UniProtKB/TrEMBL annotation:
Pfam families: PP2. Transmembrane segments: none annotated. It comes from the Eukaryota. This is Uncharacterized protein. Residues 23-33 have a biased composition (Basic and acidic residues). GO terms for molecular function: carbohydrate binding. Residues 1-38, 59-90 are annotated as: Disordered.
Length: 300
């Protein structure tokens, strides 16, 4: 790379994050006859017909209006009536849980007990030392955001080219500061990421979106940026975005592509999707792009 071109650093201004987790809609849950045990430190699972996982939590019936929320990740919720007329006093209401949630929250930055699980799943859980965020949408499907520290950004650790300020991530259950990547001056822009699709809800079409912001001081964006998605089978989607026509000083979403998860995950197949934001062909120096991360969520 040629000699660096110094550029004045101005204090970054970051507007409030508008990416709020969607509230989960309440619907009726299955009524389970079996006596199940509750434990605040661990969730015990019980297999029903070898397909549906039910948490072993006893939900008290002293509230007639409260209903558990199904979190199965299915697009439609099922309702099952009591086994018999005399079982009303002993009904145990349980919520279906999202796909592989128990494996995913093992990477959580905080301890999550059973009583707080639903709240955290809807508002967002930070993973891997604030490098990712996991939540579920209103249909119970898994969603992820990969923050810049989980991406491979060319020259990211060279303070001549990139700056790492912190912003509040208010969509999590507790407002936490996460690092974003602010471009100071480069002629070679490249940010790559990947995600294991086994963590995504099966049989769902997902969108992949880069979340970025252009500061008022931005320059060098005459050439459009490239956005690329590589499927597990090697199929590639690629498109361009003209950042010059985008609003400045606010977070915007750049659509990379879409991906359909298989109905039944196959351990023999490749499991990763890869996504990229890049521009280095015109050789112009660029400034003022802030990368917040990559969202992987069901297509709306």
């Amino acid at each position: 790379m040629g000699a660096s071109v110094s550029a004045p650093r101005d204090d970054p201004h970051f507007p409030a994050n508008s990416n709020q987790a969607t509230e989960i809609k309440e619907v009726s849950s299955e009524v389970v006859k079996d006596n199940l045990a509750s434990d605040n430190s661990k969730i015990t699972m019980k297999k029903i017909n070898s397909k549906t996982e039910i948490p072993a939590a006893i939900i008290k019936e002293d509230s007639q209006t409260a209903k558990p929320v199904p979190l199965s990740g299915d697009r439609s919720a099922k309702t099952v009536g009591p086994d018999n007329k005399n079982s009303n006093n002993n009904n145990k209401l349980a919520a279906l849980l999202p796909h592989k949630y128990d494996c995913i929250i093992q990477e959580a930055d905080m301890n999550i007990n059973q009583s707080e699980l639903h709240s955290h799943l809807s508002s967002g859980i930070l993973l891997n030392q604030k490098k990712q965020k996991y939540w579920i949408d209103d249909t119970g499907c898994n969603c992820f955001m990969l923050f810049p520290r989980s991406l491979a950004i060319t020259w990211a650790e060279d303070e001549r080219y990139w700056h790492w300020p912190s912003v509040k991530e208010s969509s999590t259950s507790d407002e936490m500061a996460i690092e974003v990547a602010e471009l100071l001056n480069v002629c070679w822009l490249e940010a790559n990421g990947k995600l294991d699709i086994s963590k995504l809800t099966p049989g769902v079409k997902y969108d992949i979106l880069f979340v970025v912001m252009l500061k008022n001081s931005a320059y060098g964006w005459e050439a459009p940026v490239n956005l690329r998605l590589v499927h597990p089978d090697g199929k590639t989607q690629q498109r361009k975005e003209n950042l010059q026509v985008k609003p400045k000083s606010q977070w915007i979403e750049l659509h990379v592509g879409e991906f359909q998860t298989p109905p039944q995950p196959d351990d023999k197949q490749e499991k990763e999707i890869q996504f990229s934001l890049f521009e280095y062909e015109d050789g112009k120096w660029k400034r003022g792009l802030v990368i917040k991360g990559v969202i992987v969520q069901p297509k709306k």
